[in-house]
Amino acid sequence: MTDLTLNKALKIITSALAKGKELGLKPLAVVVLDAGGHVKAVQRQDGASMLRFEIASGKAYGALAVGVGSRWLDTQAETRPHFLEGLSAVSGGKIVAVPGGVLIKDRKGAIIGAVGITGDSSDNDERAAIAGVEAAGFTPDAG
Amino acid sequence: MTDLTLNKALKIITSALAKGKELGLKPLAVVVLDAGGHVKAVQRQDGASMLRFEIASGKAYGALAVGVGSRWLDTQAETRPHFLEGLSAVSGGKIVAVPGGVLIKDRKGAIIGAVGITGDSSDNDERAAIAGVEAAGFTPDAG
Amino acid sequence: MTDLTLNKALKIITSALAKGKELGLKPLAVVVLDAGGHVKAVQRQDGASMLRFEIASGKAYGALAVGVGSRWLDTQAETRPHFLEGLSAVSGGKIVAVPGGVLIKDRKGAIIGAVGITGDSSDNDERAAIAGVEAAGFTPDAG
Amino acid sequence: MTDLTLNKALKIITSALAKGKELGLKPLAVVVLDAGGHVKAVQRQDGASMLRFEIASGKAYGALAVGVGSRWLDTQAETRPHFLEGLSAVSGGKIVAVPGGVLIKDRKGAIIGAVGITGDSSDNDERAAIAGVEAAGFTPDAG
Predict the structure, then answer these.
(1) How confident is the model over A43-67, as pLDDT tens digits?
(2) Chains D and B touch (3+ CB pairs under 8 A)
(3) How many domains does chain B have?
(4) Euclidean distance between the first and the last CA atom of chain B, given in angstroms as a whole number
(5) Which range marks the domain in which residue D33 is found?
(6) How many contacts (CB atoms, under 8 Å) link B and C?
(7) ipTM, two decimals
């Protein structure tokens, strides 16, 4: 498995924020977790509200939990809400099941981490996340 | 009550994984809990995502909680969501109410443990769980 | 980083249990966590008491938390008890700071997981853990 | 009150990491919290162990909790352990009471955030934290 280095994590963040600027998005928080769900790097832009770190982290953590981008969790929450409730419970309340949590995969398809973004609409958050992962040379899985 | 030995628990796991391989399922996590809901044995296959132990455990724990396989909980969640919410709350957030949590019963019908599986669709997870319990000479109750 | 496969995790467990048998130890629980602290494989021997999974897991998790075997945490708990209390708190109560949590390192020294054992004295638990890691071809770090 | 901008937070982090490199310290995690105790920016260096974000965050949070650097909490923990236990409890378990959590003060002495560092000895962690705060043009309070 490829290691997700700090340099790569910072490249993902700065590229995602550049995409946010290009699209005219509101202030964002970007969180990069390693494959085990532990924080590697975070940047919360000026003006992004108080709990944006926790929300962004919850999207990324949810994606890692089930091995698919958080958009899939969003769909599950609508069709099988009790599954999401159970998943959230056994995670210790660490999951936010909306788009914007995107898996980071290496060339062999192994999950090496996840990026979570929040601040604008979930769809726009996800667009920035995908752009960040691609700019770092990895493959995004948005769900 | 028949004891659920470690040897029997391992037989359940390896048989369930063999069934998964036969059916071409995705990587699985298999958890065997004893009659008190405590972990007896676990195996998480390579490629199974991060929180699969917690999800599988939550299915098995839910089955033991009410004395019926977790498929029953899945139905309850649809018809009486407030019951599942209450059950989850009083369990301390330990329950995942979807199929794949199967009770292990001895010849006299006593509950001696439960197996929980996750990784593929809930229906397929349950098939592997049933196969595992039967291979060990016990009676499965899927709910 | 080398992946900690399920086969290797099982090799660690069976070798640790063989060592326990050789030394005449009480029934053990053996937990193998991956590098992110997530359960890879568990076996709790017949006669090992109710919460042995949680204790073994807490030793392994503590070792991963700080990147050194749990014997080091044991010393810290005596010399700087408030550090251990803080560490335990921010971990969400997941750490048991006594010997028996041993890091699993690959040939390059990278931490690829941890094994935790409980059931006999902490010193004996640790001996079994070290034996398990070595038998799988990895380098143990007991702290 | 001066705002702690993301640019300034990043300046603190990169300067602290530069100090760590200069001193030959082990891999570090650096967390910058705003005046409300919410994450502004984080970088965890390659090789820094699993729970380093939580530990660094706990030092910074503790400093903000009482308005003095976490070295003061370390002393309190030795002379009045029950105070630290109470403080940890009412914080929801968010505090690590050892040196390395340093307040960030503006020219008028107002607290605008805190930086927490972990990875090497607590004394060395604190040195890197102080260097980071000063490099960003602010006044450190280590306690």
Answers:
(1) 999 999 999 999 999 999 999 999 9
(2) no
(3) 1
(4) 21
(5) 6-141
(6) 40
(7) 0.96
